[in-house]
Amino acid sequence: MKKVVALAILILSISCASTKQVYQDNKNLWNISSLSKEEMKMANDILTYGLEHEALYTLLDTLKPISSLGFALSYEIAKDSTMKDGDKAIVDLSSDSTQLAFQELIRWNNVTKALSNDEFTFLLIPYKQPWKGKRNLQLLVVRNSVFSKKISQKAAFFGQWGFTANADPNTVLTTIEYESRNDRYRAYGYLFGYPEHAVDFFVTASISQEETGEFVKRNFFSMPVEAGNSGYFTYAIPQDYTPTRIDSVIYNKAKDRLSNFIELKPKYQKSNGGLDAIRLVQESNQNPSLNQ
Q: Which of 67, 73, 80, 84 has its CA nearest to residue 121?
């Protein structure tokens, strides 16, 4: 009898230790202890923006494999009109504005690295085309499991670059940004969570415009976000298109998730009125019941 009791205690101890370890691991979904106070604010700010815009459907849902985090990062570090392909002296390292830009980019890279883990990848990717002497960069969040599934589902397309389900999102998205126009459109369409018919229409319209020089008129189908009912998680559709069940399913899932977020949000308000977005995203992903 004593042996049975001792064995039960041992099993219980192991179970508790295992549970404690899982809790500790989950509690540290993000290794953000290395971030400075300023970087912590940057991390919370981009998550807050994301939750209030289309990244809600990546951070707290699976509707969008990737989402923009909306921050417009722009620096005067791109080539000007006098510079040629292959020139080596592009950036003026003696410029105070250049050094400030590099310092800020170091902080952003610290943030994206600290927030990336098995579930999410946060990316800072430069747009291919400079704009008026400036290099613009996009901040993106990837839900890794959904991203991998989409790469696998669309293997007939993504396979042309050798991308497989376990491909690094950094490699995939950097490659796509620097690809030809219509492959870029199709890849982004899939990865931003648009349905097949919308991606096909956008690419076909782009090809038509290239061939004829005429813009193909269109309407838009939008999912609501807290910031507004249109202009964020939105895709183009033909002018005479009537939304189908596919569109309705996406819309209703988005609407339900938004309602849930709005209900959840007050529980994570800070004393200064801001949102503790880091804790909200962390706890919501650790405890899916919070999102029901």
A: 67
